[in-house]
Amino acid sequence: MEKILIAEDDVTILGVITAFLTEAGYQVTTAQNGIEAYHFFQKEVFDLIIMDIMMPSMDGYTLTELIRSTSSAPILMMTALSEESDELKGFDLGADDYIQKPFSYLVLLKRVQVLLRRSNQKEVDKKKLRCGNISVNTETFEVVSAGETIELTKKEFDILVLLIRNQKKVITREMILSQVWDFAAIVDTSIINTHMKNLRKKLHTEKIRTIRGAGYKMDE
Length: 220
What we know:
Elements: E1 3-7, H1 11-23, E2 27-31, H2 34-43, E3 48-52, H3 60-68, E4 75-79, H4 84-93, E5 97-100, H5 105-127, E6 128-131, E7 134-137, E8 142-145, E9 148-150, H6 154-165, E10 170-171, H7 173-181, H8 190-203, E11 208-211, E12 215-218
Parallel strand pairs: 1-2, 1-3, 3-4, 4-5
Antiparallel strand pairs: 6-7, 7-8, 8-9, 10-12, 11-12
Helix pairs in contact: 2-3, 6-7, 6-8
């Protein structure tokens, strides 16, 4: 069940939105000011945040800025303000959509559904990586090179993901050890050479280049 945080100081509007979204199948947490909303945000992970702009204690602009410093969860702003500059300010701070009061609750629901669908698709896309004819699915651990499914060890897979996510960047041996092994001081860096050799052989690729004195780079 997707979780939604609603921040709205008007108790009547808050109650109606909560009932409407709960009936639609969402798990809703409510707050009546920005500080209370931020408190909930720090304790839980939400799939969507709906907030009013004009709230006591902390307004929606400040709340959006704080949320955006640590999260990419979609934000839908509700506002009675009609100036274009107010909407632009919200977008500049990281809001994903606006709905102006008074609004239809059916329209609100549709906007919620669209934002969640886009957000979910982004999460799916993050799990599917590609570099040329090499594709990787980080959820199923499937690797395909030139149409052929390739069997990799866990360490080989983790190294490949690190390289693809940082295409065209030089990745040092120390970075590989710290992110793949998590105990760089114990592992001999020469073991990375062996893994790189195996990756090139299994993937039938020369995209993984050794940068002398620096590390490795995955060409696009």
